[in-house]
Amino acid sequence: MIPGRPNDALAIGYAYTGISNDVTANDITLGEPGPRREEQLIEIAYTMEIMNGWTLQPDFQYIMNPSGDPGQDDATVIGARNTFTF
């Protein structure tokens, strides 16, 4: 991705989870607010080799309709992972 950094890697992902009709019907029966329908996620991560045996991977996730609930605010998750290989 970046010249002179052959061991780095970029990852971009998308996930879609549909909630089954049975679960949606159960939500309606129980009077749950806004029956669950779907959840979607976009993720971007970049793995950098800091030095031989050590990588750092910052990660960003944006989750739409967490738990499939349209009444929930969308969520942003930011994290990082260190990996050491001996």
UniProtKB/TrEMBL annotation:
InterPro entries: Carb-sel_porin_OprB (IPR007049), OprB_Porin (IPR052932), OprB_sf (IPR038673). GO terms for cellular component: membrane. It comes from the Bacteria. Signal peptide: none annotated. Pfam families: OprB. One of its GO terms (molecular function) is porin activity. This is Uncharacterized protein. Belongs to the OprB family. Gene3D superfamilies: Carbohydrate-selective porin OprB. GO terms for biological process: carbohydrate transport.
